Amino acid sequence: MNAHLSIGELAARSGLAPSALRYYEELGLIHADRTAGGRRVFARQTLRRVAFIRAAQAVGLSLEEARAAMAGLPVDRSPTSAEWRPVATSWQARIDEQIADLQRLRDHLTGCIGCGCLSLGKCALYNPHDVQGAQGPGARKLLARHARSV
Ligand code: FES
Fold first, then answer.
1. Residue to mutate (ligand 1; options 104, 110, 113, 115; most atoms within 8 A of CB)
2. What's the CA-to-centroid distance between 57 and ligand 1, angstroms?
3. Residue 149: which residues within 8 A CB-CB, separation 6 or more?
4. Which residues of the chain have pLDDT under 50?
5. Strand 4-6 relative to strand 33-34, pairing
6. pLDDT tens, residue by residue, 57-70
7. Taking the CB of residue 53, how many other CB atoms lie within 10 A of it?
8. Residues 86, 105: one domain?
């Protein structure tokens, strides 16, 4: 069995596009060596790291959060249950929060049915927990968009 995978093989085995794998490499989430001809080759255990990233994303973690979570796990072997437990525990709390958020959203959805206002002031779908209001007064989204465009 070959100890390394080409990017095409890693893509086929992981279900991700080669472009996504190159992006993960660019972010430092996975590592590729180069052949003498400059082709990327990935250690076989990269499959496990990619699976971890996909699981983290399924939980709702950003790629940066996935990277932070992976920092405490071994690169060259499967994590032991003792190594895995703190990560899984933190994910469980995250999933519980998401469930609670979705239940709150479902409970407030009744007011939105047939409404369509998407009001910052009263719509729990558009502005759950009044997140926009907690960030201060004014048209912050508009101002932020303008600041990015200049
Ligand atoms: S769409 Fe009007 S309250 Fe949500």
1. 115
2. 29
3. none
4. 149-150
5. unpaired
6. 988 889 998 998 88
7. 23
8. yes
In sequence order, the 6+-apart residues with CB closer than 8 A to the CB of 34 are: 40, 41
Tell me the two tokens of residue 149: 């465009």
38 & 60 share domain:
yes
125-135 per-position pLDDT tens digit: 788 766 655 56
The reply to whether ligand 1 has any atom less than 6 angstroms from the CB of 133 is no
Q: Which domain holds residue 131?
A: 117-150
Atom 3 of ligand 1, nearest CA residue: 123
Q: How many domains does the chain have?
A: 2
Question: Is the separation of the CB atoms in 40 and 32 below 8 Å?
Answer: yes
Nearest to 10 by CA among 19, 21, 2: 21
